[in-house]
Specification:
single chain, alpha+beta, 3 domains, 13 strands, binds zinc ion
Length: about 290
């Protein structure tokens, strides 16, 4: 549990204290969807908790859902199942605890099986999300972790993540360094890292936040507006910080780093997320459904 349990409690996101705001609900330091069952905070009020849960955390959840499914990350209701959008039946990607169950219909093929290289290729779809809202959801986790003494420096950033108007200008350059680590990564290891630059350095942002789970590492800076003026207009170039838990790259391939831009303000619909599975063997499932259907 982060922060003091003493009363009156103070909310670091809206700056209000008890009894003006209440602290009855569990405030996850990072959303449960990422597999967090153990890290909570005492400094997020119920109103802010609901505001984030119904807003930016949903957008972050939608943006990360395909990779959470492929990484077998268990949220409140287990590993999320992804299926063909729309009312009609169709393909389905589901994790059962022992392996992935993949379904498609004969007249609506979805998976491309390459027996020669033992690979299965497909494209998952991503639920609609607003990029900048997903970015706020990621930054929010970092702002939850920073020590109390630092919160005063990030006022503008706290105000920005609470602002439900996603069209407001904030920081011009806001890259996310995303590393994809191939292979069967652990699905029960979460790495959260917070870094502050050393005194006397003015070539990098003041604070960095890194989140690693499953096959993905996301690295973003936490804007401290006055301290980050020194890097205004300069392109941000940084090595991705290594996180524990990497597999043998000789066996599964090297981690791949990409810079993602999540500053878009318009909803993104129907985005495709390509995936490649390596397999040892394929078992065809018998079905009780009428012949020719499944
Ligand atoms: Zn609050």
């Amino acid at each position: 549990m982060l922060g003091s349990a003493d009363h009156p409690r103070h909310c670091r996101f809206c700056y209000q204290d008890e009894p003006a705001v209440t602290f009855k609900d569990e405030a996850h330091a990072m959303p449960a969807a990422f597999g967090n069952t153990g890290l909570f905070s005492n400094y997020e009020c119920d109103a802010c908790n609901h505001l984030f849960g119904e807003g930016i955390e949903n957008h972050l959840g939608n943006w990360t859902k395909p990779i959470r499914t492929l990484s077998r990350i268990k949220g409140r209701n287990g590993v999320p199942t992804i299926k063909k959008p729309g009312p009609n039946k169709g393909w389905r990607v589901e994790y059962s605890g022992t392996g992935f169950q993949l379904e498609e219909y004969e007249d609506d093929p979805f998976f491309e099986v390459d027996e020669a290289v033992k690979q299965l290729r497909f494209e998952l779809h991503r639920d609609t999300y607003i990029p900048v809202a997903a970015l706020k959801g990621l930054v929010k986790i970092g702002l939850t972790l920073i020590p109390d003494v630092e919160t005063q420096h990030f006022r503008e950033t706290y105000d920005w993540i609470r602002d439900t108007n996603h069209s407001r200008n904030f920081v011009a350059e806001f890259p996310i360094f995303r590393t994809f680590i191939p292979g069967p990564m652990r699905n029960d290891l979460i790495v959260l890292m917070l870094m502050r630059r050393r005194a006397g350095i003015d070539t990098v942002p003041y604070a960095f936040f890194t989140l690693a789970y499953g096959n993905e590492v996301l690295q973003v800076f936490l804007p401290f507006v006055s301290q980050d003026r020194c890097i205004d207009g300069r392109p941000l170039s940084l090595p991705p910080f290594p996180t524990p838990g990497s597999l043998n790259p000789a066996l599964h391939g090297r981690p791949r780093v990409k810079v993602e831009n999540l500053t878009g303000r318009k909803p993104v619909k129907g985005e495709k997320v390509p995936a490649i599975f390596g397999f040892d063997s394929v078992q065809e499932k018998t079905t009780n459904q009428p012949a020719g259907e499944a």
